[in-house]
Structures are given as C-alpha cells and as structure tokens.
Write a structure and sequence with these properties.
By secondary structure, this protein is of the alpha/beta class. Helices cover 37% and strands 18% of the residues. Bound molecules: adenosine-5'-diphosphate and alpha-D-glucopyranose.
C-alpha cells in the first residue's frame, strides 16, 4: 500500500556527513520513493549546507517549537530535493543551534548544548508536519540524535492531528552514542518527570535519549542482523542491553545497501582507470597510481592493504597500532586514511615517517582518495571492535579488494571467510580483538596472495559478483513500516486502511522514477 513516510536524521549525503549514517539517510529515501511511497526527509541546515548549491527555497512561515522550560523557539524551513531524485528534503534553519562548522563537537568535545540542539531537531521534525500538511503513516528516526521522536510521539504529540495515528521506527546505527545529558533536559523535553524512570529515560542519573527511543518506538532495528543480536548482550549493549532485550519482539536487523551508482569500478570517475571482473587491467593502473600518489614504491609484486576509517576505538585502531610494527616487517604496503583521535594522528603519522617504503598515512577526510584506495588496494582492513554494519567492506568487495575483517556485527554478516579447500568465500576473518589475531589474519591473506594466485582470483570473483542492494534493503524497511502500522493501529483498523489506500505504484527500478539522475 502507498505510505507516507517522514524520515528525520541529523545527517544525509551529500549535504552533511560524519559517517555511514549519512550514506544511509542519503540513499534509503530515494529507494522508498522508487517503491511508490511519499517520502519526506528533515534535517538541520548546518553551515556547510549551501543554500545556493542545493537550490534551497525558504518556505513561508515559521515553525513554533515548544521547548519546555525554555519556552517556544522558532525556526525557518528551507526546502530542497535529494539529489538524483525528487524526494523533498526540509532543512531547519536555526542559526544558534546549527550555524556551526562541525556537526556535533569541537576539539573532540561534544557541544554543551547538544541536548537542546537535538531535542529541538526532534520536536521541529514533528512540528514540520503541520507546516507542510503532511500526515505520516510512519516516522522513521535514526540514532540518538532523533531518538526523542518516538518518545514525543507517545507523549506530547499523542493526540496531535497529524501524528496520533503514526507508527515510529527507530534505527540504531550505533549503541555507543546514546545522547546522555544532565537530568534538566527533562524540562526541555517537557513531557513530565514521571518519565524519568529507570524503565524509560533515566540512566545513571542522566537523561538518555536513545534509551527513551528504544522504550517508546513502535519498531526498532539495527543495520545488520548480527548487531541486533549483539546489542542484547553486555559486551555490545553499552548498558542498554536490558531495555533492548525487553523490546526484542520488535527488534530486527536490516543490512544497509550500497549506492552502486557511486561505488562502481566500471564507471567511477574518481579513478585513474576503470575496470571490471572480466578485465582487471585498470585495477593494476589504480594500484600503481595510488602507490605513486602516496609516495610508496610502485611495485606490482607486493600486496597493498588499505584502510579508510574514522580513527576511533570502535574501528580497532588501538589493536592496529599494537600490530603495526610487526605488520611492517612483512613484505607488504599499507595505506591508512582517516581522522579522529589525536593520539592516532601522531602515532600513525610517526610510523609513516619511519617506514615511508611500506606505510602511508593520510590524516583527514578525502572522498576521492577513499575511492582510489578502494580500487588500488589488494586488501581492505577493518579490525573493528564493533561494527553495526560497515560500508567499506561492501564497497571493497565490489572493487575486488578483499576485506580482512574482525567477525563482528555487519562485518560478520556481509563477509564470507575464505575456505582454501573449496576456494569459496570473499574475504578473511578473525574473531579475537587482539594484535595477534589481526597480525595472523593479515599474514594469512598476504601468504595466500603470494602463494595461491588461483585462490585470490576465486575470492576476487566472488567478491565482485556480490551485491548489497538498496532495492533489497528498502523492501525490508517497507515491511517493517507496515508491521509497525499494524501494531500501532491494530489489525482491524490497519486492514481498513489497506482497503482504502491505493497500492504503491512502484517503478521497476530507481532509474525510472521521476527526477532520477545518475550521480557523478
Ligand atoms: P562509520 O559510520 O562507523 O564511520 P561506515 O563504514 O558505515 O562507518 O561508514 C563510513 C563512511 O565514511 C564510508 O562511506 C567511508 O568511506 C567514509 N569515510 C570514513 N572516513 C573517511 C575519510 N577519512 N575520508 C573519506 N571517507 C571516509
Ligand atoms: C554507524 C556504524 C556503521 C554503519 C553506519 C551506517 O556509523 O558505525 O557500522 O555502517 O552507522 O548504518
């Protein structure tokens, strides 16, 4: 059936991105629209979202956002479209909250008013429905930034004309970041202190927005089935495993898709040469060009291992740091692109200065280099401590760059370990989060590269043929939305609605949807 879907999040490609969350929010709406739904997206207009570049149009009127004890706050709304589609996206214009260079923090310190900034985002997203006269069937929130949305829908907006019938879905991309604030944030939420209990919003005497969202959302999901299981355990639940377990009946996992218009070695314009599984000659050019650009010796006969990552503990960089001296004794080359914790900048930068023949390190964010690393390397390393989904291992498979991953969350779900007997699989896995296990597994991959060329060729073929499509993920999200509506409305009301509604008139493919343009 045709659905009205409101998606609210703090980042979306191409407007503002810190991590994979932005890739997901940038892609999913287009594929839902392609399935015939009316999808609207709302996010803050940070400084970096250029009004002219994206042809944003200021809508008439202002949003009045009730901010509890602070009183009413106001903001303008600019409308644009998601590039490559005609999905409307609404930007909240609030200079005080969002007119900043960085999204969440400065000098590795979260902004002190993040509670107000994101409670505002959550409330304003819901208030927007009035302004644009949109009555969603489902409101889809992402991570702690908009986790207050399901809480507010069950409380403040319970009888709201546009929202009272809507189900909510909270997608958890990362359990570590929970939006934990001084208890006074309850007064800004304005829903009453009776919700400040261990069951709902209280955690360690603080207001925990993610916890509230988990408690209140009609449906919950994470970005892989493996991670959905893991977050119910103390090892991965970051203290919220109990509340997650209580809601396990509505929790599932949906692996993210890949935007293959953006990540395709056959057409990728950021590469010095294109290639396919049938003709890999372009990949050799990519390797040699990458070595040149990084100042590494241009050798074809040495395996090149890449890594593109936020340099934070989640990504296993402490374990990599421990293993690095031994790794650099092997005849391999390593390239690391990333930014994050200051110690990592110094440590990896220093190691690269020490071994310029084997290790190149680039600190910073560089999308073009990320593409060239995916294409130019033989292996791609992801030693994550936890990984809800992970996108780079999926990109790297498409580029014939074999992932070496710690078997956790989405990495475990998406990569199949090499079996040297049958030559099946598409990557290399290890389980223990230790420098020894990391070293041994890179060693195994490199040994295979040197001594079992047919094995590597088979792995590469398997990897390049594998697809993680958004079409598939969007279909699963649609099922989740319908399930949520059924829970919210009850069977009878849901069936009635289904009978009244026109079926969703989806197109056969995203290319056929109005407004679609392939992206550069
Ligand atoms: P996370 O969201 O936890 O950082 P994901 O694997 O889901 O991890 O997504 C990371 C995304 O950010 C990928 O698209 C990756 O290519 C990109 N990325 C991360 N660091 C950099 C960087 N330094 N330069 C370019 N792209 C980066
Ligand atoms: C988070 C996770 C990452 C996931 C991304 C998109 O940032 O750390 O594993 O791929 O969200 O869902």
């Amino acid at each position: 059936m045709h659905l009205n879907i409101l998606i609210t999040a703090s980042e979306a490609v191409p407007f503002a991105k810190e991590g994979g969350l932005a890739d997901v929010v940038g892609a999913l709406p287009k594929y839902l629209q392609a399935r015939g739904h009316d999808v609207r997206v709302v996010m803050p207009r940070y400084y970096k979202v250029d009004r002219e570049r994206y042809q944003l149009r200021l809508l008439p009127g202002v949003l009045v956002v009730p901010m509890g004890i602070i009183g009413n706050m106001y903001c303008g709304v600019s409308q644009g479209t998601m590039p490559g589609s005609n999905v409307p996206i609404y930007f909240l214009e609030h200079e005080d909250f969002y007119g900043r260079d960085s999204l969440y923090e400065r000098d590795n310190q979260g902004y002190l008013d993040n509670d107000n900034r994101f409670i505002f985002l959550s409330k304003a997203s819901l208030e927007l429905c009035k302004m644009i006269q949109f009555t969603p069937d489902v409101v889809h929130a992402h991570d702690w930034h908009t986790a207050a949305v399901p809480v507010l829908m069950n409380t403040w907006y319970r009888h709201d004309y546009h929202l009272s019938q809507a189900a909510s879905l909270l997608t958890i991309h990362n359990m570590q970041h929970q939006g934990s604030f001084y208890e006074g944030a309850m007064d800004v939420l304005g829903i009453g202190w009776d919700h400040f209990t261990f069951l709902e919003l209280e955690m360690d005497d603080q207001v925990n927005l993610l916890k509230g969202g988990i408690y209140h959302a009609t449906m919950l999901n994470t970005v892989s089935e493996g991670y959905a299981r893991e977050i119910q355990t103390p090892e991965y639940g970051w203290g919220l495993e109990g509340v997650v377990r209580q809601r396990s009946d509505v929790l599932s996992g949906i692996l993210n898709g890949v935007d293959y218009h953006e990540w395709n070695p056959e057409e990728d314009r950021l590469l010095p040469a294109n290639y396919s599984a049938q003709d890999l000659s372009g990949k050799a050019i990519c390797k040699s060009e990458l070595q040149r650009a990084l100042g590494l010796p241009q050798r074809e006969d040495v395996p090149l291992v890449g890594m593109v990552s936020r340099l934070v503990k989640q990504k296993g960089i402490d374990v990599l740091a421990q293993a690095l001296p031994r790794l650099l004794e092997l005849d391999i080359q390593l390239v690391l692109l990333g930014a994050g914790e200051p110690w990592a900048h110094f440590y990896f930068g220093g190691m690269a200065a020490d071994r310029p023949d084997r290790f190149a390190c680039r600190i910073g964010y560089d999308n073009s280099l990320a593409h060239r690393i995916e294409a130019g390397c033989d292996f791609f390393l992801m030693p994550s401590a936890f990984e809800p989904c992970g996108l780079n291992q999926m990109y790297s498979m498409r580029y014939g760059t074999l992932p070496i991953v710690r078997a956790t969350g989405g990495l475990d779900d998406s990569v199949e370990n090499f079996n040297p007997q049958t030559r099946s699989g598409d990557g290399f896995k290890f389980w223990d989060l230790t420098a020894g296990a990391l070293f041994d597994t890179v060693g195994w991959a490199v040994h295979t590269w040197y001594h079992d060329a047919p094995g590597i060729a088979a792995l590469r073929n398997n990897a390049m043929a594998k697809r993680f499509t958004w079409e598939n993920a969007a279909e699963k999200y649609e099922r989740l939305y319908l399930e949520g509506m059924k829970r919210k409305l009850g069977d009878e009301k849901f069936r009635k609605l289904e009978a009244e509604r026109t079926p969703a008139r989806g197109k056969a493919s995203i290319e056929e949807t109005p407004g679609y343009q392939p992206q550069a």
